[in-house]
């Protein structure tokens, strides 16, 4: 049976690579578009090892309209797109706002223009819980008001959502969109062939934990312990990246089946919050490895606490996470060990 083709922008990235695997295993034919500015070619070998097949790859920047148009023309019968390709580090966005606005906004505008030209009408957009800013109440639902973002990264996600909402409201619109607001993906594929592969110093907590445990980093710095939380450290909703990848498969299928409205929004998380210190102690318990950590200054742009209400995703998408925090952290450590041994 012929597989339904789905274009995956940023498909060689952390979340994108796991989504490519889950799409293929669900019967789709993923097609990767990536410019490898924040990913490595070795990821493609990992995907091929897991699936036993080579997934089509186009080394293309989503800001390059001519190159993207050529991909759509070559592939021909694309049924949908999952758009991961974006700059994604909160701290870096504070330091480099212009780069974040240029890349994240123009890539979406270029992609949606090319999709319209080629009649591709299904889009899953990689959004973020950063659109909620500092929420007044927890957990956040999809109806929680979005506030001024705490970082340029968060602001770009808000603007992209606004763009897609306006497109959906246009009288001649044919694009159907699902906005997935991710919380904090962690962990790696059970094969330890793909996982989070930060270039340079990690911007996210878990790869910094695993690199510290492996001796690559001297110590882990926890950014602030005076937040208004039970132990003073930030609280986040950490979900296994494979669970998050599976949410994309469900969302793509919903769009292809033409269910729901022209645009829909779903939180993707576990529905639970864990503090940074809880994650540290859970990692130590799950792996038996003690961590050297210290408390540093709070980072600009960090929200004190946020976690998801996942009722809508459960009831409407029929999606729930299944992995525990221990399992996700153990898989991250297994991935780190595989990197050390390769």
From TrEMBL:
The keyword Disulfide bond does not apply. SUPFAM superfamilies: NAD(P)-binding Rossmann-fold domains (SSF51735). It catalyses: UDP-alpha-D-glucose = UDP-alpha-D-galactose. The keyword NAD applies. Its cofactor is NAD(+). InterPro entries: Epimerase_deHydtase, NAD(P)-bd_dom_sf, UDP_G4E. Pfam families: Epimerase (PF01370). Coiled coil: none annotated. One of its GO terms (molecular function) is UDP-glucose 4-epimerase activity. Pathway: Carbohydrate metabolism; galactose metabolism. Gene3D superfamilies: NAD(P)-binding Rossmann-like Domain (3.40.50.720), UDP-galactose 4-epimerase, domain 1 (3.90.25.10). Residues 6-269 form the NAD-dependent epimerase/dehydratase domain. Homodimer. Belongs to the NAD(P)-dependent epimerase/dehydratase family. This is UDP-glucose 4-epimerase. It comes from Hymenobacter tibetensis. The lineage of its organism: Bacteria, Pseudomonadati, Bacteroidota, Cytophagia, Cytophagales.
């Amino acid at each position: 049976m012929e597989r339904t083709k789905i274009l995956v922008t940023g498909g060689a990235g952390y979340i994108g690579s796991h989504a490519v695997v889950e799409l293929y295993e669900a019967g789709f034919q993923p097609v990767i578009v990536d410019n490898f500015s924040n990913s490595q070619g070795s990821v493609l070998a990992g995907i091929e090892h897991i699936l036993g097949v080579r997934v089509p790859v186009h080394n293309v920047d989503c800001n390059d309209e001519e190159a993207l148009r050529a991909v759509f023309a070559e592939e021909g019968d694309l049924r949908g797109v999952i758009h991961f390709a974006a700059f994604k580090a909160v701290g870096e966005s504070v330091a480099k706002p212009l780069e974040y606005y240029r890349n994240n906004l123009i890539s979406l505008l270029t992609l949606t223009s090319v999709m319209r030209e080629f009649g591709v009408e299904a889009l899953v957009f990689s959004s973020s819980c950063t659109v909620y800013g500092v929420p007044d109440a927890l957990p956040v639902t999809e109806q929680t008001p979005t506030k001024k973002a705490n970082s340029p990264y968060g602001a770009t996600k808000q603007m992209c959502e606004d763009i897609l909402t306006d497109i959906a409201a246009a009288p001649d619109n044919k694009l159907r969109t699902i906005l997935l607001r991710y919380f904090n993906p962690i962990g790696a594929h059970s094969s330890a062939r793909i996982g989070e592969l930060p270039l340079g110093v990690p911007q996210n907590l878990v790869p910094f934990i695993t690199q510290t445990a492996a001796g690559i980093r001297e110590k882990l710095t926890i950014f602030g312990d005076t937040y208004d939380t039970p132990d003073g450290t930030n609280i986040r909703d950490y979900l296994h990246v494979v669970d998050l990848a599976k949410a994309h498969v469900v969302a793509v299928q919903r769009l292809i089946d033409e269910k729901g409205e022209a645009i829909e929004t779903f939180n993707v998380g576990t529905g639970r919050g864990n503090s940074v210190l809880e994650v540290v102690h859970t990692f130590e318990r799950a792996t038996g490895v003690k961590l050297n950590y210290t408390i540093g200054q709070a980072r600009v742009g960090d929200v004190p606490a946020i976690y998801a209400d996942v009722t809508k995703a459960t009831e409407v998408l029929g999606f729930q996470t299944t992995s525990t925090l221990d399992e996700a952290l153990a898989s991250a450590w297994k991935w780190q060990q595989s990197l050390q041994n390769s």
